[in-house]
Write a structure and sequence with these properties.
- 35% of the residues lie in helices and 27% in strands.
- The chain contains four helices and six strands.
- Strand 2, helix 2 and strand 3 form a beta-alpha-beta unit.
């Protein structure tokens, strides 16, 4: 059975490294939720390649552009963790959002994930 994996900070170095591992172990993982801030082209590439069910984009301008680009796709693109309502828990969540901005999403995902792996010293 594939484990649902979520990556908060999917466009950063830790997130990209996690996705590199997922590429090698496709039979073990199914992408579930990603979050990022403002790297528009990488966000779009990750949506196309990994097809997560949810993508949370913190930067409002980038959120609007991505939402418009993928409006006919089966992905829930959100602008904040507050509006997040998952259908089921993620099996594994990697939190790799730098600084204090990673604290709120990490706390939120402790309730929405079975296991949380923290790559953020502030959280």
């Amino acid at each position: 059975m594939k484990k649902h994996i979520s990556i908060l900070g999917s466009t950063g170095s830790v997130g990209k490294t996690a996705l590199h591992i997922i590429n090698k172990k496709k039979n073990f993982f199914q992408t579930y939720l990603f979050s990022a801030d403002k790297n528009y082209s990488l966000i779009c590439n990750q949506i196309k390649k990994y097809k997560p069910l949810y993508f949370i984009i913190n930067n409002h301008k980038v959120f609007v552009k991505v939402k418009n680009r993928f409006k006919n796709k089966k992905i829930n693109i959100l602008n904040s963790f507050n509006s997040l309502n998952l259908k089921k828990k993620s099996d594994i969540t990697i939190t790799a959002i730098p600084g204090l901005s990673g604290l709120q999403p990490t706390i939120k995902m402790t309730k929405l994930s079975k296991k949380v792996l923290i790559a953020n010293k502030e959280s």
